[in-house]
C-alpha cells in the first residue's frame, strides 16, 4: 500500500513545473498518455482529456483524431478497433451509429468520443494539438483534407476564442490548406503508413 500511495504522489506531481522550466510547455500525450500504465483512463477518451487538463501545471493536450465514414472526427489512435474496443473494423469505415456504442475493453469501459462532444470549457487557456490521422489504412487511401477542415470549422476548432488549436499533420501536401484555413500546423515525419 505504501508503494501505491507513493506512486500516486509521483504521478500527480509529475505535471507540476519547476521554476527552472517555466519556458517549457507540458502537454498530455493522447490526453493522459498513450500506453501510460499509470493513467486511470484509456488514452484519447473524454475522461482522459478532462483528467489531464485539470492537472496543475499542464499546458494542454495532444489527441489523435480520425475521420469516420460519415465525416465525424473521433478520438482514436490505432487503426483497428478490435485491438482495444468491443467492435471490429476501422473508424474511417464506420458511421456514428456504429461508433457511438463503442467502448474500450478497459476496466472503466470508456466510450469512444467524437471531438465535437468534448467539453471545451476544459480547454480554456490551454493548447490543444490535434494529431490528424491522414491515411485510411483499411481503404488504403488518403483522407480528404477538405472534409476535415470543413468539420473542424463546423465544430468551432478554427479560430476558437478561449483555447489554442494546432494540427499535427503527417501529410506535407495538407500544410498549405490547413494554414490557409487559419490553423496553426506542426508537421510530423511519423505517419500511419
Question: What's the structural blueprint in terms of helices and strands?
Answer:
Blueprint: H1 2-13, E1 27-29, H2 46-54, E2 60-67, E3 73-75, H3 96-99, E4 127-132, E5 135-136, E6 141-142, H4 145-154, E7 164-169, H5 175-180, E8 184-187
Parallel strand pairs: 1-2, 2-4, 4-7, 7-8
Antiparallel strand pairs: 2-3, 5-6
Give a description of the structure.
With about 190 residues, this protein is α/β, with parallel strands linked by helices. It is built from five helices and eight strands, in the order H-E-H-E-E-H-E-E-E-H-E-H-E. The chain has helices at about 1-15, 45-55, 95-100, 145-155, 175-180, and strands at about 25-30, 60-65, 75, 125-130, 135, 140, 165-170, 185. Strands 1, 2, 3, 4, 7 and 8 form a six-stranded mixed sheet that branches. A two-stranded antiparallel sheet has the order 5-6. A hairpin with a 4-residue loop joins strand 5 (about 135) and strand 6 (about 140). The chain is globular. Residues about 1-15 have low confidence and may be disordered.
Order of helices and strands: HEHEEHEEEHEHE
* Helix content range: 10-25%
Name the structural class. Answer: alpha/beta
Low-confidence parts: 1-14
Shape verdict: globular
How would you state the average pLDDT, rounded? 87
Instruction: Count the beta strands.
Output: 8
Distance between the termini: 44 Å
Amino acid at each position: 500500500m505504501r508503494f501505491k500511495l507513493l506512486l500516486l504522489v509521483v504521478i500527480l506531481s509529475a505535471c507540476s513545473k519547476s521554476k527552472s522550466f517555466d519556458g517549457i510547455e507540458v502537454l498530455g500525450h493522447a490526453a493522459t498518455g498513450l500506453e501510460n500504465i499509470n493513467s486511470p483512463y484509456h488514452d484519447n477518451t473524454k475522461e482522459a482529456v478532462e483528467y489531464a487538463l485539470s492537472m496543475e501545471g499542464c499546458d494542454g493536450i495532444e489527441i489523435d483524431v480520425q475521420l469516420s465514414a460519415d465525416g465525424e472526427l473521433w478520438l482514436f489512435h490505432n487503426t483497428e478497433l478490435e485491438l482495444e474496443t468491443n467492435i471490429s473494423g476501422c473508424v474511417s469505415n464506420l458511421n456514428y451509429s456504429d461508433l457511438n456504442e463503442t467502448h474500450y475493453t478497459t476496466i472503466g469501459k470508456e466510450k469512444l468520443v467524437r471531438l465535437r462532444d468534448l467539453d471545451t470549457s476544459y480547454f480554456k487557456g490551454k493548447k490543444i494539438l490535434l494529431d490528424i490521422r491522414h491515411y485510411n489504412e483499411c481503404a488504403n487511401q488518403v483522407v480528404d483534407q477538405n472534409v476535415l477542415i470543413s468539420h473542424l470549422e463546423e465544430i468551432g476548432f478554427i479560430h476558437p476564442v478561449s483555447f489554442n488549436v494546432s494540427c499535427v499533420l503527417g501529410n506535407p501536401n495538407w500544410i498549405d490548406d490547413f494554414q490557409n484555413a487559419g490553423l496553426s500546423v506542426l508537421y510530423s515525419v511519423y505517419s500511419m503508413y
